[in-house]
């Protein structure tokens, strides 16, 4: 992994964000010059995440581990994000984890702040070097898998609905079943 220098203003913002103590169940993220404080997830959110994680766990590479709500940092582009689920190397040390070590970021869209997942993270994750972004939206039952990141965004995306099988590429290499996912307002 190459060394990078954290721009001074991002280093100060990261230091400030780390000094905050959010209420129990809340989390902090950084995007550009902004700090985002997010509420904890609902039971439907957690259920859907469990169904997704169980399938990924069955296909995870042996040198990777699942991590829920862990900080992924890319200070050189001013980003600190906290995906619902990611897979990082077993040998990852420290918090935050360098974002480019993540094999995937999985997000279950929050009904209280959907723009964070649908706009902000679609913009930030490719800049952070995260190769796959799986976006599950229980509001309408939509699923999007983004891939092929660059500094201009993800170049590929697959769209589907709850009930479709999502083609998850390497390093996982399986079809994700989504028929048991639950919408927020069924």
Question: TL;DR?
Answer:
By secondary structure, the chain is α+β, with helices and mostly antiparallel strands. It is built from three helices and 13 strands, in the order H-E-E-H-E-E-E-E-E-E-H-E-E-E-E-E. The strands form three sheets. A six-stranded mixed β-sheet has the order 3-6-8-9-10-11.
Report Rg: 16 Å
The helicity comes to 10-25%
Low-confidence stretches: 1-5
What would you call the structural class? alpha+beta
- Major sheet description: 6 strands, mixed
Element pattern in H and E: HEEHEEEEEEHEEEEE
Name of the CATH class: Alpha Beta
Shape, please? globular
Strand % is 25-35%
CATH superfamily: tt1808, chain A
How many distinct helices?
3
N-C termini distance? 45 Å
CATH architecture: Alpha-Beta Complex
What strand order characterises the main sheet?
3-6-8-9-10-11
Domain module tally = 1
- Give me the CATH fold name: tt1808, chain A
Number of strands: 13
Average pLDDT number:
85
């Amino acid at each position: 992994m190459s060394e990078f220098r954290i721009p001074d203003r991002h280093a100060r913002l990261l230091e400030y964000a780390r000094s905050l103590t959010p209420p129990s169940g809340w989390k902090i993220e950084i995007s550009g010059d902004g700090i985002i404080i997010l509420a904890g997830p609902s039971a439907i959110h957690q259920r859907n995440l469990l169904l997704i994680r169980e399938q990924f766990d069955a296909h995870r590479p042996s040198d990777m581990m699942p991590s829920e709500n862990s900080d992924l940092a890319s200070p050189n582009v001013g980003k600190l994000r906290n995906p619902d689920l990611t897979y990082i190397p077993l040998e990852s040390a420290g918090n935050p984890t360098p974002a480019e070590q993540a094999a995937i970021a999985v997000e279950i869209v929050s009904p209280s702040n959907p723009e964070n997942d649908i706009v902000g993270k679609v913009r930030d994750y490719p800049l952070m070097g995260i190769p796959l972004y799986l976006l599950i939206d229980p509001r309408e039952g939509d699923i999007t898998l983004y891939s092929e990141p660059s500094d201009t965004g993800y170049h590929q995306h697959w769209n589907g609905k709850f009930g479709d099988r999502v083609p998850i590429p390497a390093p996982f290499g399986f079809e994700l079943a989504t028929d048991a996912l639950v919408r927020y307002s069924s």
